[in-house]
Design the sequence.
């Protein structure tokens, strides 16, 4: 699920419930391991691109079918465990020392949408991609870092309201208008190509990853506090 090409690392989501790429401890741990590997190998100009196997879904959120394999009395505790694990993954992405791009070629729902918003840039498939926060429909309140992430990444309060309180399903062109994604493309392959081209453009700048990361963190003080991250001053320039 992980490969690198020149300065670009490609993280590919695979499997997880009929290609839904559902987030369970196994997948979350695998993603975090891949991010750690990318971090250890990063150099100026490194970029991370997250994609999913082409299909209906980019990521359909937490793996509720897997949770239902345990007794009903244990499911709430298991959900809390998942929420905690995923928080660590979000923190990894926000503190990753390189630009990050999510290539959304299918549905990204609930925690899947949060995974998308944890990236710096988002490109989306026009004919199939959907962004959707379904917690209000499911009857589940949001973890504090979910709402902090939305407030940090979604500038328009009306859009935040509609996404969280109405559970609207946002498709590609509308997502651009609402400021949720940066660009849309006509099909899956074109979306991946668009994400890679963006990655190549960013890589050419050869930014120092540590500096880039610290500037990113200063953009989102509420999110950084909720995630338990800290900022620091870094000077790499020759003054």
Sequence:
């Amino acid at each position: 699920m992980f490969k690198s090409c020149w300065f670009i690392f490609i993280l590919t989501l695979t499997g997880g419930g009929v290609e839904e790429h559902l987030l369970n401890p196994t997948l979350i741990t695998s993603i975090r391991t891949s991010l750690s590997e990318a971090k250890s190998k990063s150099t100026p100009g490194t970029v991370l691109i997250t994609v999913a196997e082409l299909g209906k879904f980019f990521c359909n959120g937490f793996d509720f079918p897997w949770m239902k394999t345990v007794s009903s009395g244990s499911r709430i505790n298991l959900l809390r465990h998942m929420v905690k694990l995923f928080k660590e993954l979000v923190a990894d992405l926000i503190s990753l020392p390189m630009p990050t791009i999510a290539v959304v070629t299918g549905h990204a729902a609930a925690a899947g949408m949060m995974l998308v918003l944890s990236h710096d840039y988002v490109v989306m498939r026009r004919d199939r991609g959907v962004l959707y926060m379904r917690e209000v429909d499911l009857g589940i309140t949001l973890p504090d870092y979910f709402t902090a992430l939305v407030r940090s990444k979604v500038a328009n309060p009306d859009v935040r309201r509609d996404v969280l309180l109405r559970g609207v399903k946002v498709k590609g062109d509308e997502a651009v208008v609402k400021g949720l994604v940066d660009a849309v493309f006509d099909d899956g392959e074109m979306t991946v190509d668009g994400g890679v081209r963006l990655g190549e453009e960013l890589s050419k700048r050869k930014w120092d990853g540590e500096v880039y990361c610290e500037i990113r963190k200063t953009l989102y003080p509420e999110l950084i506090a909720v995630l338990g991250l800290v900022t620091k001053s870094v000077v790499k320039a020759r003054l």
